[in-house]
Amino acid sequence: MKEYTTLTSEVLTACEQVKEQNNTRSLETGKAPRAYVLTFGCQQNEADSELLCGLCQKMGYEITDDPKEADLILANTCAIREHAEKKALSIIGGFKACKRQNPDLIIGVTGCMAAEAHRREEIKQKYPYVDLVFSPASRHRLPQLILEKRMSGKRVFCPEERDLTMPEGLPVRRKNSYRAWVSIMYGCNNFCSYCIVPYVRGRERSRKASEIVSEVEALVGEGYKDITLLGQNVNSYGKDLETPIDFADLLARLDAIPGDFRLRFMTSHPKDAGKKLIDVMAASSHVARQFHLPLQSGSDKVLKEMNRHYDREKYLATVAYLREKIPDVTLSTDIIVGFPGESDEDFEDTLSILNEVKFDQIFSFLYSPRKGTPAAGREDQVPKDVKAERFDRLLALQNEIGLANNQKLVGKELRILCDGPSKSNPNLLSGRTDGGKIVFFHGDAKKMTGQYVLVTPKRADAYSLYETEQKDG
Ligand code: SAH
Ligand code: SF4
Ligand code: F3S
Questions:
Q1: Those residues with Cβ within 8 angstroms of residue 296's Cβ, 6 or more apart along the chain or in another chain
Q2: What pLDDT, in 10s, does the model give residues 40-89?
Q3: Which pTM does this prediction carry?
Q4: For the chain, what is the domain count?
Q5: Binding site membership of 267 for ligand 1 (Cβ less than 6 Å)
Q6: For residues 355 and 401, is the Cβ–Cβ distance under 8 A?
Q7: Quick one: 312 and 373 in the same domain?
Q8: Do 351 and 238 have their domain in common?
Q9: Domain check: are 399 and 428 in the same one?
């Protein structure tokens, strides 16, 4: 494997070459080239897109939010569920018209879908106007792929790379000036039986702690207040590094950075979310009192078949320890409804654990068979209507629990990081508590956006808190 310092200089050199070509074209056309980057999927993809945008700027592109005026379109796709793939393919289909308008337009597809052999084949056959296809592990190759496309005039299907060392020190264009994502590792080794991620993102690769510490120090220096560390299973951090370090050690090192900022992380796998990590969190001054601990199912039988390596008892013991050490922790989880073979009884086990734990928030998903994963090949798939009915029951129960939890915060003064005008109601500002709960309140957007403010909510629903008596302020 190449050392990433060599890779970094190769990428930057390619950026310069594309920039020169772009400059020549701009002189001819009289306008600067523009890039449009569309992101689907999880925070990892958001972070990858920020790097793609950074590379685009380095290549001389201005970032635009209108695909019709773009000279480069990148779709950063997700493959986690069928719906995500269908949506991306349909939008990519729409880019055909942009190409007709601007024949010099380069269209690239990356992200998890671009790492699936059958989707690559589909793009090859059915989307002839897509010029570049490259997996998430090859995202830094974008400048080289553009050069190759321009030289050869042919479509470029970058080999399906998965386990590459990611180069450090590449430019990143962050969307937000006070909240930032920091990937600490890539890939996943867990092979949960329903999940496509290990197949498309490759094996776990941790970034060096020194690189992560420098990045977070720089962000804090620039005024970032909320930094989320990303990895599919952050608890595995460091297992592949030469210097012995685990996630709890990394978190402690980051916590030692001086400044007024909060650290968050996702995702923590319940099989290895240990006491050491919880102890570090409890003793820290910067780690937010928030924990996302994906449960997936409350049934031991289903958990075993999902290859999750924990049972109900272990999960509940972790939650108990977490609440003992951090009593006000905000707890969220992921639930899959309708995993193959899930019986009524199994589903009741999920409802009962929800009643026991009383999560602040759940992210629930209908099981979606993913080609190539063990669960997709099972014959005992749960019928659609049964899945839908269970899903509704799950949401109804969680709405009651979420509401009761949020009502406990009514009348309490909360420290909120303000995100500016709310998208649903521009008369109100929105922001998030230390635990990540959304709060709506009145205030001066110019003064407060990106700042901490104190708000005392008067009202709650299952999802949010309100400083105002009326929903619309
Ligand atoms: N690494 C994280 C999860 C990443 S995927 C973890 O292990 O918790 C985010 C969520 O998508 C998962 O927690 C799971 O609930 C859901 N998910 C993954 N594969 C799915 C599938 N095939 N169908 C439905 N939901 C799925
Ligand atoms: Fe998927 Fe499991 Fe890895 Fe999470 S831990 S990304 S659910 S395989
Ligand atoms: Fe989707 Fe890939 Fe993230 S499949 S959820 S974008 S890791």
A1: 192, 302, 303, 306, 308, 334, 335, 336, 339
A2: 999 999 999 999 999 999 999 999 999 999 999 999 999 999 999 999 99
A3: 0.96
A4: 3
A5: yes
A6: yes
A7: yes
A8: yes
A9: no
